[in-house]
Every structure is written in structure tokens, then in C-alpha cells.
Design goal:
This protein is mainly α and about 60 residues long. Helices cover about 70% and strands about 0% of the residues. It has four helices and no strands.
Length: about 60
């Protein structure tokens, strides 16, 4: 796993165990971000997958050799 994947896994795990308000305060993130993490980690994977699919890629993929 890459460090970014490890971080995401840890955040999603924490989001399943801590209320969004506490999560936001502990990590210094906006409450809306904490709520989104909770929704994503709570099994609403259809909405999460749609959100990921709609994001702009940070780096363009090269297709082919």
C-alpha cells in the first residue's frame, strides 16, 4: 500500500468509530468533510464511487505503451 492509501484507510476506519463533530475537531477539518468521510465509510459505496468517478484526475493517465 502507498502512504496515501494507508492514510485514507485510517481516516475511514476512524470515521466509523467517532461522531463527525468530534472527528472534525480532532483532525482540524471542516464538519462537512468529516460527514462525507462518515458517509463513505458507512457503506454508502454507490455515492462514494460516483463522487470518485466525478473527480478531476490529478495526473493524466497515459494510455497504451
Amino acid at each position: 500500500m502507498q502512504p496515501r492509501q494507508d492514510r485514507s484507510t485510517a481516516l475511514f476506519t476512524l470515521a466509523t468509530e467517532v461522531p463527525a463533530a468530534i472527528l472534525a475537531r480532532m483532525l482540524g477539518v471542516h464538519i462537512k468533510v468529516a460527514v462525507q468521510w462518515q458517509q463513505a465509510s458507512g457503506g454508502d459505496w454507490a455515492a462514494y464511487a460516483a463522487d470518485v468517478a466525478n473527480r478531476n484526475p490529478q495526473q493524466p493517465r497515459s494510455e497504451g505503451p
